[in-house]
Amino acid sequence: MRIVAGPGAFMSSTAVVAIFIPVVLRLCRNSGLAPSSLMMPLSTAALISAMVTLMATSPNLVVGPELTRRGHEGFGFFAFTPFGLPILALAILYMMVARRFLGGGVGAETARHRRPRLQERITADGLAERAHRVRITAGSPLIGKRFGDLRGTMRGVTLIAIERPLRFGVDTLRPLPERTLEEGDVLLLDIFEPEIDIETVRCDLKLDRLPLDPSGGYFTDRQHEIGMAEVIVHAESPVVGRTVDGALLRDSHNLAVIGLRRGRDVVAKGLRAERLRVGDTLLLVGFGSDIARLGASGGKVVLLNVPAELEDVPPAATKAPHAVASLGLTVVLMATGVLPIVQAALIGCLLMGLFGCVDFASAHRSIDWKSPGSHRRDAPLLHRAAAYRRRRPCRRCRAVRLG
Questions:
Q1: What pTM did the predictor assign?
Q2: Considering only CA atoms, which of 137, 34, 10 is closest in space to residue 19?
Q3: Tell me: the pLDDT tens digits for 129-140?
Q4: Which fold has domain 118-220?
Q5: Which of 13, 117, 228, 379 has its CA 20 to 30 A from that of 308?
């Protein structure tokens, strides 16, 4: 609750709860706790911490400037802190006692139907030994080549992703056919043919070998971008009878096939030349967004299983520093009184949009477009504005004639 109360003092309680719900669910899944034992403390901390500052509660933001406009002394940024902090402390103490009555452990039904973990899939298919991370050095024949032109020469090797260093951080790129390789690019490789030696590949292509994730997983340090999925070839699939290469899942979905199960047997050798049959189970690897689109589109294959970690992938993890900086600047402007509260909040919103932390579509969906004070409280504001532009009565609002 203390962790939730921190951002809850400076953000909307609804937004704080939405941010921490995936975190709480992941903690429950890993520790075996019932979600009900943590969800109630989460919402309690978010709601009560909103009373600590002027910023976190919408009515306070409205009342404060209105008092100033009418000639009264307005509320300071920390005017509510002497009242909010003691109440928050009492709520934390109460929930520490009450949470033990909110639910038990995870039920047998939940445990039986839990989704597989990424590490379990890596261990079952022996993928950890196949993963390699290499850097393109000066003089490498790969420099300036497009990935699409290299497919015929990289037999037994699958390029999972490309890490390209930036001025601030690293950009993880899809290996698209038109993608041009550059010096300094880091390649995430899966060598699935046992007879191929990584040292031979490294020497021939002038690559530097880099260490993998210390946990020894299959690029598990990139699980926020790269995920896995199990799919099955159905009877009506157009890929039946084709080879794994001929299925063109890389071209159509940006997903690479790294494993094939036929019944209980694992096809380890000659994977790309293996012809697919009805009921074959393929293990695909690629970006989480591409896996989500595969599940929504259907078509060639049917999505069976994705690791539980895919649910924990943040929609814009690289934008977190920009979002925190924008929020921090807004808090500083409000607390110091450099700008009026409304203007400081507007600057924070504009910075979020400028940095790409939120796009126009998601911002539009988050707004409740109701017309306040109208004769029909459920009439959307945009609907009434459109009727006004047409200079004719709104068909939904006959009682008011516009123009």
A1: 0.59
A2: 10
A3: 888 899 999 989
A4: Alpha-Beta Plaits (3.30.70)
A5: 13
